Amino acid sequence: MSVLSNRPSRLLASACLLTLMYTSSAYAESAREQWHAQLSSGYTALADASSDLHQQATEHCTISQETAAAPLRDDWLRAFLAWQRVRFIDFGPIEQNSMAWQFQFWPDSKNLIARQVDGWMKDQRPVSPQALAGESVALKGFPAMEYLLYGEQSDTLSPRGCELLVAISAQVSANATHLVEQWAAFKPHYLENDGYQTTTISAAMHALEIMRDARLGAPMGLQGKKRRNAYLADAWRSEQSLTAIRATLQGLQSEFLPGFATVMRDAGKEQLLTQFEETLAGTLERIDSLPSDVSASLKDEQRYRGLQLLFVDIDRLASLLNGPIASELGIVKGFNSSDGD
Asked: Which region is the signal sequence (predicted)?
C-alpha cells in the first residue's frame, strides 16, 4: 500500500488525538450536543409513532361502525413506548402548556381518566381535537386512549369511542410534532448555557427516583399505605407497566448515557461511569426476565421476589447517580416542578 493511501487514516488518527485533547469546556459542550441530537431523534421517533397511530385510528374507524380494538393496540403501544423513552426529560419545551401531562396524565388516584372519557362517551357534543383542547389533561394523551382500547368492554370500539380515539390521537400527534420543532428551536439556548449540563443530569436523577418510588415502589406497597396495588402503576390497563419502565431505562441508555459518558470522562471519573453503565445494563437484563406487568407478580410471592430484586437494582442506579456521581460533579439536587407541594 502506498504512502498516499495511508494519508486519510493518519489524518483520522490525528483528528481523534485532537479530540482527546479538548478542554473540559469543549467536552461539556460536546456532551450537550450529543444530548440534543439524541433527544431530537427520540422526539422524532415519538412524533412518527404518534402520527402512525393517528393514521391507523383514522383508517380503522372509517371502515365500519364497530371497530375491533386489537389491531390498534400495537400502534398505541409503539407510540406509548416511544414516549416512555424520552419521558425522563423534564425541562425545555416539554414544560410548556403542561405538555408532559398532555402526553400522560399519571398518577390517577381518583380514576379521573375513566370518568372523563365515560363522560364524553355519554355526551352528545361533536368530537374533535378543537372540542377537546380546553378539556382536562385526563381526557388527553396515552392513558385516555389506553382506556378506550383496553378498558372494560373494549374488544370493539363504538362509533363514539372511535371519534374520541381519533381526536385524542390527533392531539398527541400534533403535540409530538410541535415538540420536535420546539426542541430544534431550543438548541442554541441549550448549547450556550452551561447550566443545562446539570439540568440534564438532574432530569435523569429525578426520573430514576420516580421510577423507584412511584412507578415500582408504590404498586409494590413500599410507599404510602403500604399495600400492594397494581392500579397505582402506569399502563396497568394494558398490562405493560414493566414494559414502560424498561422503555424509560432504554431511553436513559440510548438518549442520556452517550452525553453523560462524555461528562464523566472529562471529569476523570471513568470508574464511576463504568459502574453506572454496568448497573444500568444489569437492570435492563433483570427486567427482561420479568413479565410485562406487575399484577401477577404482586399476587405471587416468588414472582414478587423478582420485583424486589428489580427495585434493588433501580435503587442502586438512582443512589449511584444521586450520591457519589452527583458529589463528584458538584450537583446539588433541587426542587422539581413535578415533585408536588
From this structure: 1-28
